Amino acid sequence: xxxxxxxxxxxxxxxxxxxxxxxxxxxxxxxxxxxxxxxxxxxxxxxxxxxxxxxxxxxxxxxxxxxxxxxxxxxxxxxxxxxxxxxxxxxxxxxxxxxxxxxxxxxxxxxxxxxxxxxxxxxxxxxxxxxxxxxxxxxxxxxxxxxxxxxxxxxxxxxxxxxxxxxxxxxxxxxxxxxxxxxxxxxxxxxxxxxxxxxxxxxxxxxxxxxxxxxxxxxxxxxxxxxxxxxxxxxxxxxxxxxxxxxxxxxxxxxxxxxxxxxxxxxxxxxxxxxxxxxxxxxxxxxxxxxxxxxxxxxxxxxxxxxxxxxxxxxxxxxxxxxxxxxxxxxxxxxxxxxxxxxxxxxxxxxxxxxxxxxxxxxxxxxxxx
Length: 370
What we know:
Layout: H1 2-26, E1 34-36, E2 41-43, E3 47-50, E4 53-55, E5 68-70, E6 73-77, H2 78-85, E7 88-92, E8 97-101, E9 120-122, E10 127-129, E11 133-136, E12 139-140, E13 154-156, E14 159-163, H3 164-171, E15 174-178, E16 183-187, E17 203-212, E18 224-227, E19 233-243, E20 246-255, E21 260-270, E22 276-277, E23 284-294, E24 301-306, E25 319-322, E26 333-339, E27 350-357, E28 360-369
Parallel strand pairs: 3-16, 8-11
Antiparallel strand pairs: 1-10, 2-5, 2-9, 3-4, 5-6, 6-14, 7-8, 10-13, 11-12, 13-14, 15-16, 17-22, 17-28, 18-19, 19-20, 20-21, 21-23, 23-26, 24-25, 24-27, 25-26, 27-28
Helix pairs in contact: 1-2, 1-3
């Protein structure tokens, strides 16, 4: 019995180290890619048990801290978990990696009593932090969700949170739920195996995405005035609107009398590229592109290129995505486009999958991790 308790504590210690590693990384905002999220709440309706005993995570001053609930997932504060279980956490700034050990000389703060409110408290300012890496027992580790996709920690008010179930998968712990008491149960053995990870080995890891606006967009200027050879004037309009995965481009030319001489309109929807792909993989993207009229509308293309290249630019090493019949630039198209060849990298290399639409575009940033 004593041995089992020690084993559980050791595993949980590692788990907390894991979590704390994210906490340490949050302290270095310059290195992190942050994506704002909404719909997060501090959840004071939940309780936790570790090995059948009540457990209360606390902050630096001993005050109980609350888990975050986001998109149906419970996130625990990593530093508080570290205090609870006792782990050594170190930081390798050269590689943005948190290093976890099984012991620490730091004393956990003494817990102070606090009455439970049983409330959900909406919060703002929470972000997903996508640039954090960590090692467990000297080996790279990646927490994943139920579908095997890598999951990101949440940073909020200087604290880093990680999903409880992802930690359970990572460390072989059992995570269960007692709905009668709203209690998360953590045990030393899992009854369900971890899903196959879509990452974890050497390869390209997604870190963030970015929208790039066409510098010729005239939605804020009322159009661009030009002049025909005969002296009459016209006004050209160019506008990109929509969001990631669903973007529309509208162009038009109006004559001086208000007549629309020409116009273009294209709508592009697409699926995101994978969050991880290996050196021998050729990822695909599913595209649905319609062009009601093509005046002033450039063809759509996807490429894998250096991370600092914007839509419309390219390096000699660019790798295009192509349709099954070999098209790399499509005006109207419905189907998949696949990267034409695989690409390997070395630790720290940065690339981007770039969607190009009239120099508008969306960039998906990737980093090679060993």
